[in-house]
Amino acid sequence: MEKLIVLSSFLKGFKRKNAADIINAFFIAERLSNTSSPFTFENRDNNGVDCSEIRRLLFFNSKELDKQQKEERKFHDLGKKVSKFNSNELKWVAQYIRNKDAHLFPEEAKNAQNLLKELRSVLDS
User: Fold this and answer.
1) Which of these, 52, 35, 56, 33, lies nearest to 44 by C-alpha position?
2) Residue 65 has pLDDT above 90, yes or no
3) Fewest CB atoms within 10 A around its CB: which of 9, 22, 30, 118?
């Protein structure tokens, strides 16, 4: 049940429905904030990261996620902070955190570095 609470809290802050965006955003927020979550992430090369467990929860438990009343405030706030990134930015940043610039074009890696600086300053404030 803890997984539903964590993911539901994040989704209420992030407010997007695309699974790839959710997974990349959650990964970014978790890694940059040194917050531990109950999920394991896999590399998706130039598409960022993936988490089959989150995909299953989004697909099979969407109603339970929507009606979840308990909230982990830190995950809600992290969702809000990464919600300003578009899909490509989420992929680039997630991939950069995971593998540096191994699967990114030079311009994508530079954009990811700049976005990381911006996000770190938001998280630090």
Assistant:
1) 52
2) no
3) 118
Among 72, 48, 47, 49, residue whose Cα is nearest residue 39: 49
Domain boundaries, the chain: 2-124
pLDDT above 90 covers what percent of the chain? 54
- Model pLDDT, residue 1: 52
Question: Element (H or E) spanning 50, and its range?
Answer: strand 49-50
The three-state secondary structure class of 49 is: strand
Spatial contact of 85 and 93, defined as CB atoms under 8 Å apart: yes
> Which amino acid, 112?
A
Summarize pLDDT for 99-121 with one digit per residue, the tens: 887 888 999 999 999 999 888 87
Burial class (CB in 10 A: 0-12, 13-18, 19+), 1: exposed
Segment (H or E) for 42: strand 42-43
Q: Report how far Cα 63 is from the mean position of its chain's Cα atoms.
A: 20
- Per the DSSP assignment, residues forming a β-bridge with 81 are none
Q: Strands 49-50 and 42-43: what pairing? A: antiparallel
